[in-house]
Hints:
single chain; 137 residues
Amino acid sequence: LAIPDGCKFKGFNKVLFSTSHLSLHGIEELKPLQYLKSLYGFKLEILHIKDEHNSTNEVLSNEVLFKKYFSDATYTSMEVSSKKMFEKVNQHIIENKIDLFAIVSTKHSYLDRLLNRYPVETFGLKIHTPFLVMNKA
């Protein structure tokens, strides 16, 4: 959990979980989100991000999981280029007064990390909203 400087905790009313659905999610990796929801009873929005590299093979399987464990969540879809991803998601966070932004991060090889920049790095360095990163199980 990353909390930007100057951010004052006022509880969690709205939480945004963002996914590209490129891989299946399991409940184990979403446990921190599930736990926080049980504590704060926030409204959860699941944002499906589609970009030029995205296929939606896993969307239905993930939706079944989300409906089972987060039955009152709302779903939004956003189509955006990789270059504009941070700006568009950050704009959505600001416009919708999101209190916590959450994602699942996957591990990449050392060489892959050297050659590519991933959204989690951009968000972690630039976002002004508390940011929860859960590890892929």
